[in-house]
Design goal:
The protein has 271 residues and is mainly α. Helix content is 80%, strand content 0%. Helix 7 runs antiparallel to helix 10.
Length: 271
């Protein structure tokens, strides 16, 4: 029985009987319409012919090129408002510190995690906008996109904090090591907490709440005149320890973020 004859028989039966077509008769027709399985040597020859077209493992240099290419693409897709607003936030903090005699340590403590908190909106934009399914199936997958944006936003946060730290050091002659420790600890801890919450809530809901909570926490801490001198009196080793733990937590949360994206869990969150 040829495929054309089978198609005609299907059309004839459905035209005459419609929904009354019996299951047994349908099964008989399917049994008669068979496809021969190719011999073993044909399968093996096909595999051997395809193997030569499989890409080889990329070298380290090509992996780096691909990584930088991915990052450069994501720079264009991260909203311009994020880059500009984060920069203006730090410039305003530096200007306020210089002209309003605000303690430099207070400035870096308040500003240190802000770009990353705002950047969660960019990291989770795919899931918030309902595009996660499409990006899971694209050449540059959703985990790659999220991790590239995570690296970009985290690096931008570090650069801004480093710039304002050196700027305040040159302006006021403060302890550079201490001011660096002052922003590393809140940056790593708040960023890891944000990634933990980001895997369970939408970014557009999470960011306003996080900004409000962080603002209230900072106001509560700095409104007490004894808090800042107490923090400055702490041993640097304690700050280093908290910073190392913060980096470890941030790394763990970034790995979990990638794993959840690979399993498609973010798609469920966005639905």
């Amino acid at each position: 029985m040829t495929k054309r004859d089978t198609t005609r028989e299907w059309e004839h039966l459905f035209r005459e009987k419609g929904e009354e077509l019996e299951v047994e008769e349908l099964a008989r027709m399917l049994d008669e319409y068979t496809v021969e399985f190719p011999p073993e040597h044909v399968i093996q020859n096909t595999i051997e012919n395809c193997v030569v077209h499989v890409p080889r493992y990329a070298s380290e240099s090509s992996k780096l090129k691909r990584m930088f290419h991915t990052l450069s693409l994501q720079v264009e897709y991260v909203s311009k408002w994020f880059w500009l607003f984060s920069l203006l936030l730090f410039v305003s903090g530096y200007v306020a510190t210089v002209f309003d005699s605000i303690s430099p340590y207070k400035t870096v403590l308040v500003l240190s995690p802000m770009p990353f908190i705002l950047g969660v909106l960019e990291i989770l934009r795919s899931t918030d906008s309902g595009m996660a399914e499409m990006e899971l199936a694209s050449k540059m997958s959703l985990p790659q996109i999220m991790m590239a944006r995570f690296v970009l936003i985290g690096s931008y946060n570090v650069v801004l904090n480093a710039i304002i730290s050196f700027g305040l050091y040159w302006t006021f002659g403060i302890d550079l090591w201490k001011v660096l420790l002052f922003w590393v600890v809140p940056f790593t801890w708040i960023s890891s907490i944000m990634l933990f919450l980001a895997s369970r809530f939408r970014g557009r809901r999470l960011v306003p709440i996080a900004v409000s909570v962080w603002g209230a926490l900072v106001i509560g801490i700095l409104s007490n005149p004894k808090t800042l001198p107490y923090l400055l009196s702490l041993n640097d080793t304690l700050f280093v320890l908290f910073g190392v733990v913060g980096f470890a937590l941030l790394w763990m949360q970034s790995i979990q973020l990638r794993n959840r994206a690979e399993r498609g869990i973010f798609v469920e969150i966005a639905d």
